[in-house]
Specification:
Helix content: 40-55%
Radius of gyration: 13 Å
Distance between the termini: 29 Å
Order of helices and strands: HHH
Mean pLDDT: 81
C-alpha cells in the first residue's frame, strides 16, 4: 500500500512523493529497493542537488496554484 501511495502522482503537487524526495519516479516496486543512485541518475552531487531543488520549486509552485484556486 505504501509503495502504491508513494508512486501515485498527487493532484496538488503534480508529482509523486517518491519523485519529490529522490528525484525520479519508480516504474516498478523493485525500483524502491536500495540501489546506487548512479543507476538512476548520473549526476555529481551539486548537479543532483540543483535538480532536486528545481523539482521542489516546481512542486511548491503547483501547491501555491492549487491553494489560490481553492
Amino acid at each position: 500500500m505504501e509503495v502504491a501511495y508513494n508512486r501515485a502522482v498527487h493532484l496538488t503537487t503534480k508529482f509523486c512523493p517518491f519523485e519529490i524526495v529522490y528525484g525520479f519516479k519508480p516504474t516498478a516496486p523493485i525500483d524502491v529497493l536500495p540501489l546506487p543512485m548512479q543507476e538512476h541518475m548520473n549526476f555529481d552531487a551539486s548537479k543532483r542537488a540543483k535538480f532536486v531543488n528545481k523539482l521542489h520549486d516546481q512542486a511548491r509552485e503547483n501547491i501555491e496554484k492549487m491553494t489560490k484556486m481553492y
